């Protein structure tokens, strides 16, 4: 299991940092990321319950605002006009993000007029523009699970940030996704998305030393069973002292959950150790298949491995978890044969398995979806040799051996 890393901090005060051509003031924020349904809401609420922090709903700042639009707003000569317009355009579940934060465009304008133009100032405005008085604002915690795809941008714009990566056993993650609007209805396919998310985090950590230095891993199960220890680890990394208020995140959670987000309501009931490893109470064959698929990452974080031994590992190029849902019978057969899969990296050497485009057409995928898949497959074709994944394939050890 990866050991949590603690970074020494000499101060948590606001320090000037150079971003691009502008000196900006940062507040050493904490970003909480993780695969959806990994426990990010409850962990971020616990941090926000600390007297030195405050939080808010998911901002989706990096996720929904394009990089070019953000850059244009931060370099516009009429600063902060474009920045305010861009922040005002952000919406989730039909509601403007600035309304969720309780700030107005006038609040944003007044705040940003006093700051050097930068993307960091734009995001900070959501959390700080409503604060009054001469005192420096408390530090803030931002939680958007999908920001795991933007870790390099986070450390570029917030070099003093702490990134908390919340990890949860994929067998509990996929069970928690059942019935949610964006889930596929296939636990196997949702496990594939979990693998994609973890592959992206691993890639960012490997390619950017600043990401590796900023990030710590926190298992959700450890947080539920021994919250004091887990939160102390987070505080140590962020240069703060643990505070007992963090053990009662319910009130902070209420301000971070929208009325439309009914699936998050359980987080308003507090820290419940019974939620840890819930899958064990009614484990089935699908859980074992998921453990086989996700074997490498499961072992990395110290989770229970599959009951059957792993005979081989197979790199797979698959456009998305929705495409993986159509491949469920094939992936289950692979798991039964002891084949663990992982997202094929760009520099993968050896055999890469891809999905037959003909089968995609037969399953009724739209032209856009097939185009996305063709793009992924064309990248994989540059890696020799490449094999096509068919539903009728026999995934015996001899069949998939490299």
Automatic annotation (TrEMBL):
<dbReference type="InterPro" id="IPR052736">
    <property type="entry name" value="Stf3_sulfotransferase"/>
</dbReference>
<dbReference type="InterPro" id="IPR027417">
    <property type="entry name" value="P-loop_NTPase"/>
</dbReference>
<dbReference type="Pfam" id="PF13469">
    <property type="entry name" value="Sulfotransfer_3"/>
</dbReference>
<protein>
    <recommendedName>
        <fullName>Sulfotransferase</fullName>
    </recommendedName>
</protein>
């Amino acid at each position: 299991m990866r050991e949590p890393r603690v970074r020494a901090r000499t101060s948590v005060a606001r320090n000037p940092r150079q971003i691009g051509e502008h000196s900006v003031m940062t507040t050493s924020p904490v970003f909480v990321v993780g695969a959806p349904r990994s426990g990010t809401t409850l962990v971020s609420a616990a941090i926000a319950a600390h007297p030195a922090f405050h939080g808010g709903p998911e901002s989706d700042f990096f996720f929904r605002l394009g990089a070019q639009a953000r850059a244009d707003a931060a370099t516009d000569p009429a600063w902060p006009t474009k920045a305010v317009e861009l922040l005002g355009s952000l919406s989730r579940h039909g509601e403007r993000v600035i309304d969720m934060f309780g700030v107005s465009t006038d609040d944003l304008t007044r705040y940003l007029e006093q700051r050097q133009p930068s993307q960091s100032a734009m995001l900070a405005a959501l959390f700080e523009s409503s604060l009054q008085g001469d005192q420096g604002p408390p530090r803030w915690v931002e939680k958007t699970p999908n920001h795991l795809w933007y870790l390099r941008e986070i450390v570029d714009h917030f070099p003093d940030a702490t990134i908390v990566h919340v990890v949860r056993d994929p067998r509990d993650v996929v069970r928690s996704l059942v019935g949610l609007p964006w889930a596929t209805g296939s636990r196997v396919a949702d496990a594939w998305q979990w693998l994609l998310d973890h592959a992206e985090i691993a890639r960012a950590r490997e390619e950017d030393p600043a990401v590796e230095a900023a990030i710590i891993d926190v298992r959700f199960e450890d947080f539920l069973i021994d919250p004091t220890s887990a939160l102390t680890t987070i505080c140590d990394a962020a240069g703060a002292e643990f505070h007992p208020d963090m053990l009662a995140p319910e009130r902070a959670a209420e301000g971070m959950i929208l009325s439309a987000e009914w699936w998050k309501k359980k987080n308003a009931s507090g820290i419940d150790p019974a939620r840890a490893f819930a899958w064990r109470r009614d484990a089935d064959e699908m859980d074992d298949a998921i453990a086989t698929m996700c074997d490498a990452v499961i072992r990395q974080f110290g989770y229970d491995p599959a009951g059957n031994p792993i005979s081989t590992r197979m790199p797979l190029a698959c456009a998305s978890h929705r495409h993986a849902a159509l491949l469920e019978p094939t992936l289950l057969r692979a798991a039964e044969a002891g084949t663990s899969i992982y997202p094929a990296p760009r520099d993968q050497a050896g055999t890469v398995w891809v999905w037959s485009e003909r089968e995609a057409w037969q399953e009724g995928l739209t032209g856009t979806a097939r185009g996305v898949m063709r793009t992924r497959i064309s990248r994989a074709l540059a890696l020799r040799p490449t094999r096509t994944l068919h539903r009728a394939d026999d995934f015996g050890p001899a069949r998939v051996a490299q």
